[in-house]
C-alpha cells in the first residue's frame, strides 16, 4: 500500500548524495505560482508519480552571470504512468505553441515519484530534461521530496538538479531559489488546506475532457488573490 | 466544521448511494470517501442495514490512504466483531500494517492466510504490492509473473504487470501483457490505445505502423478517445510520413491519415470550446451567490 504523501510530519533530512558544486549554469528561481501548482499536483495524486513543465519568460538577450532564470508558471502534465512517449510529445507540441503565443520558454521539468522515499530523477526525468535542453541550455530538473510534503509547507521541499559534465547534480536549495519564499509558503499552505488540488487540471485531465484547461486559470486567480 | 450533509444539502441516502457509485467505479478519491463515509457511519449506522459492512471496508481502505489510523482501526474492529474468522477481514488487517509500513508483520499476516487457503488471490496480490512499495520492482515482476501462470485470467494482474514493465522501460514485455488483455477484451478501446502507446514508445518503423493500426482500432471502438486521435496524428504525421524509409504510397497514405486526424481534433476542440463558452455565459449570468465550489454530489 502506497502511503499518502500529505499529513505526514517528518523532520527535515539532509538529502542529496551528490557533491555540491559551484554551478556554471544559471540557477532557476521559482515564483509562488510555479511552486504551489507543482505541490498541488503532487497532492492531488498522492498514490501516483506526477510530472510537469516549468516555463520562464523569454528574454531577448540572456547573458550568463546576470539574473537567475525565473520560472513564472508550471504546467502539470501527467499522473500515473510517465514512461510513455506519445502523449508527452503531444503535450510538448501544444505547450510549445502556447509558449510562443505567450512569450514563454520551457525552462524546466518537475517530477514527484510514486514512492514516498524516492526522490531521485529517473530515466524519464533525464530524457525529458534532455529534450528541453535542446531549446534551453540551462534547463533544470526539479524533484519533489515527497517525504517532506506537509500542509504547513514550513520548508521548501524541492531538490533542483542542473546538468553538469554530462550528469545531473543537485544544488543547494536556499530561499534564493524562490522569488519570495514566505509568499510561496503562505499561498501553498493556504491552497493545500483549502483542498484546491481537487480542481487542479493536468494534461491527462485535459485529454480525458478537452474542456479541462491545463493552464489552470482558476487556480492562478486564487494565487493572485492570496498575494 | 460543517458536516457533509450541511455543506451539500444531502440526506443519508444520497451519501450511501454516492459511496456505492464510488465502489462500483473503483474510485480512489479517498479524502471524499472518508468525509462522506465517516459521517454516514457515525450518524446513520442503524439505517444502513447490511450495507454497513461493505461501507466499513470501503471507508477503512480510504482512511488508510489518508493516514487516518483512528478511523481505520474503528472500521476494522467492527468488521472483526462481525466476521471473526474472515480472510477478507484479515486482509484488511494486513493492509493496515502495510499502511503503517510494518511490512514484515503484514507479510506474516498474508502468509498465514495463504497457509490456510493457498488459492487466496487477494493475499498474494498484497504481497506483491508490498514488494512494489519497497521499490523491489524486479521481485514484484517475478512474483506477478508466477501468479499469472496460475491465474491466467486475472485481468487486473495483467494490467498491473504491464505498468510495472512500462516503469522499467521493458516495453516489449508490457506489449505482451496488453496483447493478453486485448485478446480477452477485444472491445476495450483503452487497451488498444495503451498498446499503441507502448508500440510508439518502442520506436522503429514497424512498431510505428503497428501503433498507427491500434490507435485506429481504438478509434473504431470509441471515436471520442482523444488520446487515440492525437496518437494517430502524431504517428502518421511525425513518424511515418516524415520517415525517409517509407515508400511514396505509404507516405501519401499517412499524410491522409494525419490530415483526417487533425480535422477531427480541431472539430473536437471547437465543440468543447462552444460548451465552455456556453457554460461561461450561463455561469456569468447567474447571480454571484449561486456560484459554488465544485459539488462532490453533482460532479460525476
From TrEMBL, chain A:
InterPro entries: EMC8/9, MPN. Signal peptide: none annotated. Pfam families: UPF0172. GO terms for cellular component: EMC complex. PROSITE patterns: MPN. Residues 28-184 form the MPN domain. Transmembrane segments: none annotated. Belongs to the EMC8/EMC9 family. Component of the ER membrane protein complex (EMC). EMC8 and EMC9 are mutually exclusive subunits of the EMC complex. This is ER membrane protein complex subunit 8. The lineage of its organism: Eukaryota, Metazoa, Chordata, Craniata, Vertebrata.
Automatic annotation (TrEMBL), chain B:
It comes from the Eukaryota. GO terms for cellular component: EMC complex. Its main location: endoplasmic reticulum. Residues 90-199 form the EMC2 TPR-like domain. The keyword Amino-acid biosynthesis does not apply. It is found in: Endoplasmic reticulum membrane. TPR repeats lie at residues 155-188. The keyword Aminoacyl-tRNA synthetase does not apply. It is a peripheral membrane protein. Keywords: Endoplasmic reticulum, Membrane, Repeat, TPR repeat. Part of the endoplasmic reticulum membrane protein complex (EMC) that enables the energy-independent insertion into endoplasmic reticulum membranes of newly synthesized membrane proteins. Belongs to the EMC2 family. Component of the ER membrane protein complex (EMC). This is ER membrane protein complex subunit 2. It comes from Oryzias sinensis.
Amino acid at each position: 500500500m502506497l502511503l499518502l504523501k500529505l499529513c505526514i510530519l517528518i523532520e527535515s533530512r539532509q538529502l542529496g548524495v551528490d557533491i555540491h558544486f559551484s554551478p556554471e549554469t544559471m540557477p532557476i528561481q521559482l515564483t509562488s505560482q510555479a511552486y504551489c501548482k507543482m505541490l498541488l499536483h503532487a497532492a492531488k495524486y498522492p498514490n501516483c508519480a506526477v510530472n510537469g513543465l516549468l516555463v520562464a519568460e523569454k528574454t531577448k538577450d540572456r547573458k550568463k552571470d546576470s539574473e537567475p532564470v525565473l520560472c513564472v508558471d508550471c504546467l502539470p502534465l501527467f499522473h500515473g504512468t510517465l514512461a510513455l512517449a506519445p502523449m508527452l510529445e503531444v503535450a510538448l507540441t501544444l505547450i510549445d505553441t502556447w509558449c510562443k503565443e505567450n512569450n514563454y520558454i520551457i525552462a524546466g521539468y518537475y517530477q514527484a515519484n510514486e514512492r514516498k522515499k524516492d526522490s531521485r530523477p529517473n530515466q524519464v526525468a533525464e530524457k525529458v530534461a534532455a529534450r528541453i535542453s535542446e531549446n534551453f541550455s540551462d534547463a533544470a530538473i526539479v524533484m519533489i521530496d515527497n517525504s517532506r510534503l506537509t500542509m504547513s509547507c514550513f520548508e521548501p521541499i524541492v531538490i533542483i538538479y542542473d546538468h553538469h559534465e554530462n550528469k545531473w547534480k543537485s544544488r543547494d536549495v536556499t530561499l534564493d531559489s524562490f522569488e519570495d519564499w514566505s509568499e510561496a509558503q503562505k499561498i501553498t499552505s493556504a491552497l493545500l488546506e483549502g483542498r484546491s488540488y481537487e480542481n487542479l487540471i493536468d494534461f491527462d485531465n485535459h485529454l480525458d475532457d478537452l474542456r479541462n484547461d491545463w493552464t489552470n486559470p482558476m487556480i492562478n486567480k486564487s494565487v493572485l488573490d492570496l498575494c | 466544521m460543517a458536516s457533509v450533509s450541511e455543506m451539500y444539502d444531502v440526506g443519508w441516502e444520497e451519501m450511501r448511494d454516492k459511496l456505492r457509485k464510488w465502489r462500483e467505479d473503483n474510485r480512489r478519491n479517498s479524502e471524499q470517501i472518508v468525509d462522506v463515509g465517516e459521517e454516514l457511519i457515525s450518524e446513520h449506522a442503524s439505517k444502513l442495514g447490511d450495507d454497513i459492512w461493505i461501507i466499513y471496508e470501503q471507508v477503512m481502505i480510504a482512511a488508510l490512504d489518508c493516514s487516518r489510523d483512528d478511523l481505520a482501526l474503528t472500521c476494522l474492529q467492527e468488521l472483526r466483531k462481525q466476521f471473526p474468522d474472515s480472510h477478507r477481514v484479515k486482509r484488511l488487517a494486513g493492509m493496515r500494517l502495510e499502511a503503517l509500513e510494518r511490512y514484515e508483520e503484514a507479510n506474516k499476516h498474508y502468509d498465514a492466510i495463504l497457509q490456510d487457503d493457498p488459492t487466496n488471490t487477494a493475499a498474494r496480490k498484497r504481497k506483491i504490492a508490498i514488494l512494489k512499495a519497497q521499490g523491489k520492482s524486479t521481485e514484484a515482476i517475478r512474483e506477478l509473473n508466477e501468479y499469472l501462470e496460475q491465474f491466467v485470467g486475472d485481468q487486473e494482474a495483467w494490467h498491473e504487470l504491464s505498468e510495472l514493465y512500462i516503469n522499467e522501460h521493458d516495453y516489449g514485455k508490457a506489449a505482451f501483457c496488453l496483447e493478453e488483455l486485448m485478446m480477452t477484451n477485444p472491445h476495450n478501446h483503452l487497451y488498444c490505445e495503451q498498446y499503441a502507446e507502448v508500440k510508439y514508445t518502442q520506436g522503429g518503423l514497424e512498431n510505428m505502423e503497428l501503433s498507427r493500426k491500434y490507435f485506429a482500432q481504438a478509434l473504431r471502438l470509441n471515436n471520442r478517445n482523444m488520446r487515440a486521435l492525437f496518437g494517430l496524428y502524431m504517428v502518421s504525421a511525425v513518424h511515418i510520413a516524415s520517415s525517409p524509409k517509407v515508400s511514396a504510397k505509404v507516405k501519401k497514405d499517412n499524410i491522409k491519415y494525419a490530415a483526417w486526424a487533425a480535422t477531427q481534433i480541431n472539430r473536437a476542440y471547437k465543440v468543447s470550446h462552444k460548451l465552455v463558452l456556453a457554460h461561461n455565459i450561463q455561469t456569468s449570468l447567474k447571480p454571484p451567490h449561486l456560484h459554488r465550489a465544485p459539488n462532490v454530489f453533482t460532479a460525476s
